[in-house]
Amino acid sequence: MADHGPLRALDERLGRAVSASAVPSWLAQFFADLGNASVALPVLLVVIGWAVWRGYRSDPATGPARRWLPPLAAALALAAVPALVVPLKLWLARPGPPRMAGGAHDGFYPSGHGATAAVAYGVAALLLTHGRRRTGRPAAGRLPLAAGVALLNAGVGIGLVRQGYHWPLDVLGSWCLAGVLLAVWCAVCDRQPDDRNTRPDHGRGPDPGPCAGPDPQPGTEPRPDRDSQPGPGSSRSSRDVGPGQEPGTPAP
After folding, report:
1. What confidence tens digit (pLDDT) does each residue in 37-90 have?
2. Are 77 and 185 in contact (CB under 8 A)?
3. Is 50 exceeded by the pLDDT of residue 202?
4. How far apart are the C-alpha atoms of 124 and 44, rounded to whole Å?
């Protein structure tokens, strides 16, 4: 991105093609505006407030660390976006599309709007999932929610390119950065202490966290290995057989 090359030339050719495409300008602008901090931040704040309220309502005895860590980590993840994007833009200093020529700032890689949308809406979806898992409710809506967030961010990326605000790789770079921040959020919040892991819960295991895979289906418990089951007359191992005694015979 910092130097002219075949990848950068291909990226700019693709960007010009998307900018001249038949995507309606009003629709592209609508999705591009979803990457503004003035839109994404209020959405995340509403979800953070819901997560705090839901955590206290479901278990008032929950410790403050367990209740506040996921929302606080979500706010810090969004705050980390400008702290990382601005130095990268200044360091790489990639020129923007022709529409942005002569703008007030230099450097367009990675896209700040793309990273803001991906982190804000992505961590909001994780908070919603985290609330469902902590209350013991099935997380059947995780897949549709993840698909909706992915489609929304795809719309934001296409809108930014269609309106001539960024090149395609600017958006792709912002998604990679957002993926790192979301992975850090998962690592931190999945390791938080959980009181349910230290008290009996009628056979339930530890909370797998919002970033774990789907719940196992009923009736899929692992069956014991037949080879590991002791057969008739094999209750005593060979090392318990005394001198001159046949295996399987009772001891004197």
Report:
1. 999 999 999 999 988 888 766 665 555 666 788 999 999 999 999 999 999 999
2. yes
3. no
4. 6
Q: How far apart are CA 70 and CA 212, in angstroms?
A: 15
The whole-angstrom separation of Cα 110 and Cα 98 is 17
Structure tokens at 156: 């934001």
Residue 229, pLDDT above cutoff 60: no
CA distance 131 to 136: 9
Closest CA to 59 of 69, 67, 71, 47: 67
pTM above 0.85, yes or no: no
Q: Give residue for tokens 């600017």.
A: 170
Q: Report long-range pairs for 199-205 (Cβ below 8 Å, ≥24 apart).
A: none
**Residue 150 carries which DSSP code?**
H
In angstroms, how far is CA 136 from the centroid of its own chain?
20
C-beta neighbour count of 240 within 10 angstroms? 10
